[in-house]
Write a structure and sequence with these properties.
The complex is a heterodimer of chains A (about 110) and B (about 110).
Chain A lengths: L3 E4 L2 E5 L4 E7 L3 E9 L5 E7 L5 E4 L2 E6 L4 E6 L8 E9 L6 E3 L3 E6 L1
Parallel strand pairs in A: 2-11
Antiparallel strand pairs in A: 1-3, 3-8, 4-5, 4-9, 6-7, 7-8, 9-10, 9-11
Chain B lengths: L4 E3 L2 E4 L5 E6 L6 E8 L3 E9 L2 E4 L8 E7 L2 E6 L8 E8 L7 E2 L3 E5 L1
Parallel strand pairs in B: 2-11
Antiparallel strand pairs in B: 1-3, 3-8, 4-5, 4-9, 5-6, 7-8, 9-10, 9-11
Chain lengths: ~110, ~110
């Protein structure tokens, strides 16, 4: 079974600071997804990373994928309060199609 | 596009009662997934369908849980009889192509007393 680990689990950061969330997975994969979940809400898709070296950016968030290291990062630049949420990565096993394995989530709080 | 629609949003029931959760996927999406989210276990895949056919139900906890997809626009997840440990948020999600992300509904918060 594919194991997906995120760290940190909890992150409290000040507005304006930069930080990185890490997503490690245990088995070969060629697809990785990042989601955001606000308290009591659904999960919203942020990024789809489909190949080694893929980098996607949206606003203050940038995601990257290193399939050789089995690692994805979600970098936050100059954090603002609106980014406070829980962030999940999800990995799909290579050649299996649709088994999405979710990480434990990183709860981010941005302090003014 | 209305997105994935789930009902009810909240369900409170007593132990032993039957519970039915409903989901309408996004039109044109061939895949439908049922997930359960708890603080202790995170997001767990229960079952998923492709073109209305169940493909993998290995995540269904036990025989008390059953899921159906009678047509491309409707799916149900039934728990009979319900137990307090079934309390969780149940999400339905759908997607179209192999590489596309999951699109989640707003979830059903189930409380079994």
């Amino acid at each position: 079974e594919l194991k997906v680990e995120q760290n940190p689990l909890f992150l409290s950061m000040q507005e304006g600071k930069n930080y990185t969330i890490y997503c490690n997975y245990s088995t070969t994969s060629d697809r990785l997804y990042w989601y955001r979940q606000d308290p009591g809400k659904s999960l919203e898709s942020l990024f789809v990373l489909l190949s080694n070296g893929a980098v996607k950016q949206e606003g203050r968030l940038m995601a990257s994928l290193d399939t050789k290291a089995r690692l994805s990062t979600l970098h936050i630049t100059a954090a603002v309060h609106d980014l406070s949420a829980t962030y999940f990565c999800a990995v799909v096993l290579k050649n299996t199609g649709n088994q999405f394995y979710f990480g434990t989530g990183t709860s981010l709080t941005v302090i003014p | 596009d209305a997105g994935v629609i789930q009902s009810p949003r909240h369900e409170v029931t007593e132990m032993g009662q039957e519970v039915t959760l409903r989901c309408k996927p996004i039109s044109g999406h061939d895949y439908l997934f049922w997930y359960r989210q708890t603080m202790m276990r995170g997001l767990e895949l229960l079952i998923y369908f492709n073109n209305n056919v169940p493909i993998d139900d290995s995540g269904m906890p036990e025989d008390r849980f059953s899921a159906k997809m009678p047509n491309a626009s409707f799916s149900t997840l039934k728990i009979q009889p319900s137990e307090p440990r079934d309390s969780a948020v149940y999400f339905c999600a759908s997607k179209d192509s192999v590489a596309s992300p999951l699109h989640f509904g707003n979830g059903t918060r189930l409380t079994v007393t």
